[in-house]
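Cross-posted from the bioinformatics board.
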Amino acid sequence: MNINETTSYLFAEVTNLYRTGFEKTMVELGLHGGQVFILQLLYIEDGQSQIELALKLNNTPPTINNMVKSLQNNSFVKSRKCKKDGRVMRVFLMPQAIELQEEIKRKWLQFEEDFFSSLTITEKLVLFQLLEKLKSDFGK
Amino acid sequence: MNINETTSYLFAEVTNLYRTGFEKTMVELGLHGGQVFILQLLYIEDGQSQIELALKLNNTPPTINNMVKSLQNNSFVKSRKCKKDGRVMRVFLMPQAIELQEEIKRKWLQFEEDFFSSLTITEKLVLFQLLEKLKSDFGK
DNA sequence: GCTTGTTTCTTAGCAAGCTAATAATATATA
DNA sequence: TATATATTATTAGCTTGCTAAGAAACAAGC
């Protein structure tokens, strides 16, 4: 078995295409790839703590901290100390981020369509199910 | 259509699992994830230029330059100016890297097995074919 | 109340991606 | 030959991931 014929080798290649493609798409909105994931969670529930975001995104606290900081520097969010628990910083959406919600969704779905355009509906569904298996099994 | 139910959202999650898992595996050999890809190409043909490596790995020259530099700092490779073309730096394997070849292959195939252990042989083949489609279509 | 441990955030530092810009060399063209 | 263009490598600077180590605040037990 040759290494560059393995599924993981191919997976790494496609992963790269995905990441840079997604990044390029979101940069058009003045945002970066990772930041969009945080906003997405805040659209669902505003004022979440960093640890909540970290758990939901399967990222470490420092990673989230970085992204929140840069979102803050660009006035997309603002952090406030929680009154009930002084350790917690709650992250809140600013108008500039709220305005972008629809545009982000549009771009995201457009990217989704482009990236998977070579697959039929059925194939895409199969891919989804395979990825779910990988996630639930390996992400334990 | 909700964004966190899209295939691209799931893809991002699995991508993360993949990258950190692969990294952890290779760190056990004193190498990092990206460096292993370069060594892999050099095992096939020693003395390649950075631009050749960049093209084959679908990475940019600065990315390759970084990785080659750190491989060099750890005595896995050595770079020499090409005599026929003064712009080109040819990258050569050092004994320390050659010794690791079999171990890397072993680790890689082990990771491959672990990461895709939730899939049957058939499912893995299907995944491979779907990824190939994505690669050949989106990576144009 | 004090100590001990836990949780949350933060900082520092690194790898691996990228873009943009520069230097050095080759090549092609006038 | 001289000038313009290509190519290769590099540097600087950014985002997104990580780990390790620290600070600050809370919770529990003595």
